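Case study 2.
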Amino acid sequence: MNKQVAYSVIDAEVQRLRKLSYSELIKMVGTIERKQVAGADGKSYNLEYKALWDSIKSRDVTVIVYADDGGWRVFKPLTRDFIMRPDGGFAGEPLDGKEASSVRVDQKIDVLKYELDYRRNKQWNVFSWCSAILVAVIGGTSFLNRDPNHALQTGWRVIISSAVIGLTTFACLWLTYNADRESVTAKSLEAISSCEIQHVANRKHRQIGTASAVCGYRVALFLLAIATLFATWWP
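Prediction:
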């Protein structure tokens, strides 16, 4: 295999990947992409690239590109890699000037958008998980209590009630934490991008948003918990 040609193929792919935003790269984490590229020597080269966390704490992403010609190099491919930081910079390659400032702002916006979507999805996942359990308990206890011969004994009712209260409390605390983080992230995104994010800057949206104390996931879970306790103790 012609190493010079192979490295030129790798470098071209690396440059393409470096142009991607941080939010695009983190979506690639845990995946492996493969393709064939024609080299300057007319030969076909196998390219493989993957992204992985360089550090979970710092959220840096490492991208590695491999190349081989299908021969023995399959067992020892040529490689290039780079590490992108959450601010859009590259580890060991500090950015300077206006370009650096522009890139950092764009990357920060991407990170904040990703964080905003993550917090909203997390709230929905917590709500759907907890509400499904509560609805199942309502159905099960209602069915058992219909027949006096299979009605729940007081001990079991106390246990179920305690579990429902504990589950609902934990879910509401988790929802509150994520709702608070969502609001903070949205405000930060507004400050940077000068755009209005749903239910944060606009009071009307805020009143019906997931972070609202009047109408939202937490109120729905509270009402479901009340219904579950009622179904457990009635009749």
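The beta strands are 32-38, 44-55, 60-68, 78-84.
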